[in-house]
Amino acid sequence: MDEETFHALYHATAKTLWAYIARLSGRPDVANDLLQETYCRFLTARLGKVEMAEAKPYLFRIATNLLHDRWRKGEDTVWSEAPEAGFERDLDTQIDVRDLMQQLRPRERQLLWLAYVEGMTHNEIAKSTGLQSMSVRILLFRARRKAAELLGRKERAVHEV
Amino acid sequence: MKCEREQQVIKATRNGLWASWLRDHLRGCALCTQTELIAASLQEDVAKVQRGVELPPAGLVWRRAQIRRRERALQRATRRPFLIVGALGGVYSVVFLLWGLFQLPHSVYRLFAAPPGLTGVVAFAGLALSGILAIVGWWVLVLETKR
User: Fold this and answer.
1) What is the ipTM of this complex?
2) Measured between alpha carbons, how far is A92 from A86 in angstroms, rounded to an integer?
3) What's the domain range around A111?
4) Do A94 and A56 lie in a common domain?
5) pTM above 0.90, yes or no
6) Are residues A69 and A120 in the same domain?
7) A10 at interface of B, judged by CB pairs closer than 8 A
8) Residue of chain B with shortest Cα separation from A2
9) Last residue of a domain, one of A51, A76, A101
10) What is the rounded distance in angstroms from the CA atom of residue A81 to the CA atom of residue A64?
């Protein structure tokens, strides 16, 4: 991959990848480091001609592995993001996704993000996480139920006020 | 529980293009309503998160990767002679061990009549030590290769 192609790829993917890492780890300060590490590993890996479409899931896979390494070491298991770290409350719905993420397990956050933000299919999620496709289906179903319950509870609380 | 329209609901939430039939479906499907609620909340959040982000420059990341690539190439180049020597040492140990095994009955016989203090047990211990060294050598070699 030449530098120009990399720049194009970086501009197309870096923001979403950063958001993914920041939301999953709950550490925007760590996100920059992991982001750089992800691209470094991507560039130093011995890959064939990687098309843009294939590069994105691969980048998510690397980032996911880096996050797993941190979780295995016991890092980022507790949400430590400060409320003022660039995330404002949604004034219309008062649904604070930060609160939601805080109450979910890392795996649940990851599956929800890949499915609902990146729009990945179960098979693509399986490739990005290393899980079996059937496990993705079950875990995602549980995560979705939990998230919907939490969001619904918040909405009801807002309407009552 | 799964709805086949789920992916379309996610896609519509992402690009904001809702077909009227999909809207109608959404009203009647509890699963898709859940999906829409989560997807919309998360995507709204992503937009907010991305707005305030200051990413490291692409050029910096590129240069870092190039430096790392060069370091790795250098590491590989310097490791190669050691690997060759290690491999030759390993092969030599195995050949020597096999030769020793074939010679064992004869050596034991000769050692019985040879210098005092050198018994068959000592010869056997020496042979065992050589075997251990050969195995350890191979193990180190395998570890080095994996690194």
Assistant:
1) 0.73
2) 18
3) 90-161
4) no
5) no
6) no
7) yes
8) B62
9) A76
10) 19
